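Encode chain A's predicted structure.
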Amino acid sequence: MEQQKKILLVDDEPSLLAALERTLSRKGYRIITAPNGQNAISLAKRHGPDLIIMDISMPGIGGEEVAAKLGEDPQTRNIPVIFLTGLFSRDQQQQRGHMIGGHIFVAKPVETEALLQIIQDRLAASAVATPDQQ
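Encoded structure for chain A:
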């Protein structure tokens, strides 16, 4: 049986964090949540999630800075990140090719099925890219 995938959710909006946690838990993912970037860094190091879904605009350390710090650490550099953000519209998402700093971004609000597909794709791509890492 395949091991349950861990996803770290990072957002300073408690209602969105709770809704995402409920949705993804129901789909069989193990969820860890962080209300800000600083917590996200320590939780990523402690729990080694399979994927991080993170807002870009947060008080203190924003998502792009968190992703950069994680990318500098050998312990966390291979964890894929999906930015979930209200900073860009869906039109801008299409124009930018869904990438910021080498990470996929998705405009809020996102449809659940679309987000689930992106999560599955990123986890599958990560498993192929780093088969020796658990």
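Residues 92-97 have pLDDT under 50 and may be disordered.
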